[in-house]
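Components:
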Amino acid sequence: MTAAERELSEGRPRVPGMKPAVEAERLVKQYRGRAGTVDAVRGVDLRVRAGEVFGFLGPNGAGKSTTIRMLTTLMSITSGTARVAGIDVMADPDAARRRIGVALQEAGLDPRQTGRELLVLQARLFGSSRAQAADRAQELLELVDLVEAADRRIKGYSGGMKRRLDLASALVHEPEVLFLDEPTTGLDPASRLTVWEELRRFNARGTTVFLTTQYLEEADQLCDRLAIIDGGLIVLEGTPQQLKAELRQRRDLNADPTLDEVFLDATGRTRERLAGEVQEVSA
Amino acid sequence: MSAAQQAGVLGGRALREGLRTPESLAPTLFIPVFFLVVNFGQAGKIFPSSSTAFLHGQTYAAFQLPISLLLAASFGSAALYLVEDIEGGYFDKLRAAPVSRSALVLGRLLAEAVKSVFITAVLVVLALPFGVSIASGPLGFLLLLVLTSLWAVVFAGFMQLIALKTRSAAATNSGGLVFFPLLFLTPNFVPRDLLTRPMEIAATFNPVTYVMEALRSLILQDFAWAPLVLGFGVVAVLGVLMVALNVRLIRDYD
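Structure:
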């Protein structure tokens, strides 16, 4: 491994001294329920550098969504620390919120508003004036190709349109870090490709993308680096190429394995056990 | 943007939501009018205005109107829309924005107050053919609108607490039923001093009694300050309590 590759795999900054976009140390989340304490996340360490697309993979219930909810200030942290864009999310959640965009598993939209109204409202909540919010909404509607549907109520939108609008609403304030929790789940292949293109476009503009997905092909296509979480702990981290090369070498394979084989190896799952947890897709 | 401005923006959105679901307003208007008509129809002759001192020369419908106003003000849909936001993920979208947690609570409550002003005014107009007038005049009518809408805020705040705690539409709906015993443990058919002793004690401990008596005083009499101070005092205390509890729940919301 070259020095550059080693730096990349460890999430070290491209420019020395540059703060990581996301940094978590010994992040823990415990829930207290009737059946006792549940450890959803058991000490996650993460470092995502500015400008990269970082994939966060894991089977259902592994702790992906819980981790992303802690990083985006939506859930309290039991112990450990998390910094996003250099801001401690527990100490100063509002400052962190100004620097992040969030699109969660279900497109979080208000079906009774129009697409334009939703974007204007979101921009206003991030401090834009009425005129600035209207301009920004128009700009984003053009970016995600929803100008024609802009003044229709969201309840009439297709799944793909809702997802694109959700992405646009996460971008109203030009966030430094964009958190996406399964952004393409439930979309048809064409809509999935559109979302991929948009993510690449946002990333090319300098936005760091932190992405969870159950589609390994998606991670392979989009991510500069990825981490696999299982049972609340990170079990593997690196670039897709590094992870495949490591497995190929370790198992003495003739060709590079696929990312789903890497995933199965890392999580100790078989394809049968995995059915219904992680899906392989090609868009 | 200040928390008040944020609450205004969120309140505007909640009002738009209400306007786009006019069907949700139908029961809010129909059931209170139904109560007014039925109660007046059943007891109007028992309490003729000419010989019933507590009516101050008005019809029994005027005595009944505060019940209909409070009923309408307690039909607010803020909590149910909040559950929809929670279930649909939009509430998380709002929570992930740098919005004051108080504004998240107050936005919907503000919209509820505005809706209540409109509904109260419509109900008063609908009550006019039953011989009802507002004895305290235009200023009294204004106070009537303010007091009823403040009660709407209190009750919507209570319902939002259930919504935030349970995150369930069914539980939130059931929580609304708590208002019916509160409404009937009041001097709703006759003044408090004519109630049986146990009912009088129950009514005395029921905060709704004081709001009802304040509204009634505005309808039946010229300004009577004692019931008004009590009525506004009750909604002020309960309003502050509900907002504080809501904000606390949102801050601890995981």
